Amino acid sequence: MAKAKIGIYWAAACGGCDCALLEVNEQILDVVAAADILLWPCAADPKYSDLRDYKNGEIDIVLFNGAIRTQENVELAQLIRTKTKYLVAFGSCAQSGGVIGLANQSSRNEIFSTVFGDQANWPQLDTNKNGHDLHLPEFLPRLTHLADVVEVDYVVPGCPPPKQVVSALFSALVAGELPATGTVFASSKNLCEECSREREQLKITQILRPHENDPDTEKCLLDQGFMCMGPATRGGCLAVCPAANMPCTGCAGPTAAIRDQGAAMLNTVASLIGTGEEGEDQLAAEDAILAQFDDIVGTFYRFGAATSIFKERYHERNATAR
Amino acid sequence: MDKTNAAFEPRIVAFLCRWCSYAGADLAGVSRLTYPANIVPMRVNCSGRVDTEMVLTALEKGADGVLIGGCHPGDCHYVSGNYKTRRRVVLLKQALSEVGIDPRRVHLEWISASEGIKFQSTMTSYTELIRELGPTPVRQRKEPVHG
Amino acid sequence: MSSPRIGVFVCHCGLNIERTVDTLSVSETLRQYSGVAFVSDYDYMCSDPGQQLVSDAIREHRLTGVVIAACSPAMHEPTFRRAADDAGLNPYLVEMANIREHCSWVHLDRSEATAKAVKIIKTMVEKVRGNHPLDPVRIDHVDKCLVIGAGITGIQAALDVADAGFEVLLVEKEASIGGHMAQLSETFPTLDCSQCILTPKMVEASRHPNIELMTYSEVLNVSGYVGNYTVKIRKNPTYVDPDKCNLCGDCEKVCPQSVPSEFERGLVDRKAIYIPFQQAVPSTYTLDERSCLGLHPLRCSECAKVCEPGAINFDMQPTILEEEVAAIIVATGYDMYPIVNLGEYGGGDVANVIDGLQFERMLSASGPTGGQVRRPSDGRVPKRVVFVQCAGSRDPENHNAYCSKICCMYTAKHALLYRHAVADSEAVVFYIDVRAGGKGYEEFVQNATEHEKIRYLRGKVAKIYQQDDKVMVWGVDTLSGKKVEIEADLVVLAMSMDPHPSTRALTKTLKISCGGEGFLKEAHPKLRPVESLTAGIYVAGAGQGPKDIPESVAQGSGAASKAIALLTQDKLSHSPETVSIDEEICGGCGVCVGMCPYTALSLTVSGVAECNEVLCEGCGTCVSACPTGAAQLKNLTDFQLREMIEVALSDG
Questions:
Q1: CB-based contact (8 Å) between C609 and chain A?
Q2: pLDDT above 90 covers what percent of chain B?
Q3: Chain B residue with Cα closest to C72
Q4: Which of residues 277 through 306 in chain A touch B, CB cutoff 8 A?
């Protein structure tokens, strides 16, 4: 059997996903034995022309990490799509925009001001320096995810994808037994299934951020008031964060039946908030707990803001009205 | 914005709980109490069935306002579904504020089966409020230029 | 799955819909809509020919779903679901699109109403498209009925159910059954003796082979569902064995502890060991542990020492009984609005300002004064008595907003009985207006005003206070516009009726609701007055709202007939529109479990949630709370709702 041809690409990414590939340790040797890596900008230094020179569909599978932030990301995603048989959205950013999707809460100008300061320093799309025309790819008005610009065959969630998930993907690849397209390489259930903490699920009586208290290591973090995203997040990572006494931040995205992860978590948390009693006389006490939230988007949409239903920030005049 | 508010006809979805608000709407009908035709009612068993994702979906699909009608505190047919919805709406409104959407685009009102008049006045005043707020910014969202 | 073939039936409802909704245009639009295989409109779809039209179309066009665009589902949903069932289509594939109450009746502009009707119908087409055929859940049931409260309402209900051949568990909080009716002297408008008509019923209830009586008992917990409620009842210890007690009364004589008698409304004291009243059922003494010196032979035990039959047992413990019942009738009754809340009328301060029930006890031949009217302060016979109606009623700013309904009648009765009892007496009644609706009621009041020389003053009393040994009543006669100042010997306040204080806690236990005033809430104020919104739980009597004896008895019988109708069914059926759990998605976080008010949800040993469809009422609160989307309401899934929302907001 001919060796499989694989590619690894990063778009708007931090590099963590590329590192995560190596977390499988010696299994990478099996991969290298079974496959040729045709594209890996993180490790080699390919040119656009190298990619263009491949025949359409020549690459068997490309693991694409990072979000779609610039016009270059769009074009490369489209180019890669033509060159590969299977395209994998690898990691949270490719899957759902990831943590950098929170940038959609700011406008492009706000981002530029923050990053580059004075407008004079902002990048120009076209410049001429010493007689050379320079063109920078456009920084898109809104960040999005891979599936928004091309068809995606598989999703490997996680920030970064956990070792056992990557390993499962590699095993399938080496064996030449990729599952049906559309498969998400994670559990179909939520994280709670993998979490060993004890749940009482009585009520949420306070809202705590991780630094505000030392969580009990045995009890459900949500029960203690820490906004653990586990209930609204796919398992597959074996609940490593809660095991390390940190609340889940939701990097694997929601289950297949949920459209908007933040909304699902908001439903759950609001449903559980209370004093233990429900009644007209408890409304004020409930409001006092609800008022302890100061960043709902950052809490419930940490990885899903760009692909949430609202996707970005709006500018209504009375957004703070009641 | 080239549309003037006078020409603007708000699109509003109302989730009405079967036992109180939907019945209140029935009473408004039986009593021939007129109100604007901008609201499309949708029956759910309990306001507790109305979840945040549905409200956001309505906004996404172009609703200028979303109204949720439930039983008065203490009157919920299912004991306490309305309290849960109330808490969700409080948080959802805060979330809408954070993303720059006027939180009044989502409104929760307790309307009992005997409050036909309250149903009428709520529909009327809410339609007027949304008319003032203008079209939802969500519907006017421009897709980023790519591809 | 083959493509849907949905039929849409647009009703004109005569002109009710047709006047503002262009049904022809609606039909044309729907004919073009995806999945719609057949559209028809008709004058009255609910008529026999209309239903026939629906049935025929289901068969001829092999419809897979039906939308009836007509009135509210509250009206004719059962009608059309039955018609569909007869034609071989699962009834849960039929939905109503309410284009009458929610559209034609409330809009004036024909084009706006027509456009809205189209949207309403399309949302229901989308719902039907996602509906699945369902079968009603069939439930076995036990054959017993629980009646909570043994006043006249509860007694009547218990007797009716028992007479129909079913077992009844009659639970009463107090030491005797009988309720407030046992305290009354004579009853309006016929002036027959209250105890004389009540006690035979009390005895009958206690001797009926189908009635198990539990006095001094409280309902602690209720779980389960219609047909199969599990109730936990605590019988508090009376410390007296009713089988041994021979009512000699020796214990009472030696008991050193006196407390105000509840039955006599505090006009006299009773002992810590007491019998509430002579005709009490069960006929036994009760030792009230809160008043007793200590239930300890070393501390007192005077009563035990003198009790010849040895009926007194200080070691008696509360017993907890668990019973399965099919239906529950709640007849918790009323209590008087606390007189101390009426400080402006000297309530609780002025000894000679009393409430109506205290006056009843005075008038009663078995009462503390042997039927003589005497002032509490000095025992003198009052020569002038002022009766104040609406004390605590019809006063939304300060007290209860509602009318207590019976006070007009009992005040007329009080004044009349007083005039009969005391020669040369003067009776003055302050009233806002006299509400005497009822058979023979108006005639009774007319007689009191015209022939019994009772002075009726229309107006509200502003202030009542003590002056020397008189009670001063300040008020306004609103007919003459003059201030009135009356020097009275005794004032009787026709106190407002409150729901019994135990009502709210009990409604929580039963998971039924009570209205803002705290009275038990009925399922429909007109058409379902004795049903709660929870299947198998019925409400009756003054706990549901102020009412007199005949109305209470009628409601008791009404609730009993509802319970009997349930008990006589072979099996009960329950809506199948319940929650289902997708086990592929559910990770067993358990959020749903705590959401369910009916304990329908639980976690299985394999760590996923499970819904007991017999318990599930289909509210969907758990569906909204479920963070994974695993919990879905059958025939109203997230997917269906999304489709419905989309079409409700679409342009076309």
A1: no
A2: 80
A3: B26
A4: 278-280, 282-283, 286-287, 290, 293, 295-297, 300
Domain borders along chain B are: 9-133
Q: Is B146 a residue whose pLDDT tops 50?
A: no
Residue B79: pLDDT band (50, 70, 90) is: confident
Assigned domain for C244 exists: no
How many DSSP H helices and E strands does chain C contain? 16, 34
Q: C129 is written with which tokens?
A: 């498209």
Q: Fill in the amino acid letter for A31.
A: V
On the question of pLDDT at B147 being above 50, the answer is no
Q: pLDDT at residue A215 above 60?
A: yes
Q: Is the Cβ of B81 closer than 8 Å to some Cβ of chain C?
A: yes
Question: What DSSP character marks residue C531?
Answer: B
Q: Which chains does chain A touch, 3 or more C-beta pairs < 8 A? A: B, C
Q: C567 in helix, strand or coil?
A: helix
| Domain end position, chosen among C134, C152, C183 | C134
Q: Tell me, yes or no, whether C651 lies in a domain.
A: no
pLDDT in the model for residue C614: 87
In whole angstroms, how far apart are CA C367 and each of A211, A274, C469? 71, 51, 24
Give me the domains of chain A, ranges plus CATH numbers.
Answer: 4-101+139-175 (3.40.50.700), 191-291 (no CATH)
Residues of chain C with pLDDT under 70: 1, 652
Does the pLDDT value for residue A265 go beyond 80? yes
Q: Span B91-119, mean pLDDT?
A: 95
- Closest-CA residue of chain A to B137: A314
Chain A positions touching B102 (Cβ under 8 A) are: 316-319, 321
Give residues 63 to 82 of B whose Cβ lies within 8 Å of A. Answer: 73-74, 80
* Domain membership flag for residue C649: no
Task: Give me the pLDDT at residue B2, please.
Answer: 42
Question: Which tokens in the block code for residue C137?
Answer: 């859940």
Domain at B9-133: CATH code? 3.40.50
Counting the structural domains of chain C, the total is 5
- Model's pTM, two decimal places? 0.80
Interface test with B, best of A75, A107, A258, A267 (most B CBs within 10 A): A267
**Two structure tokens written together for A171:** 């095993």
In the structure, how many helices (H) and strands (E) does chain A have? Answer: 11, 9
Is residue A176 packed enough to be buried (19+ CB in 10 Å), middle (13-18) or exposed (0-12)? exposed
The boundaries of the domain holding residue C601 are 575-634
Of A208, A199, A259, the residue nearest A230 (C-alpha): A199
Query: Quick one: pLDDT at residue C1?
Result: 53
| Whether residues C466 and C516 fall in one domain | no
Q: Which of residues 559-618 of C touch B (CB under 8 A)?
A: 577, 595, 597, 617-618
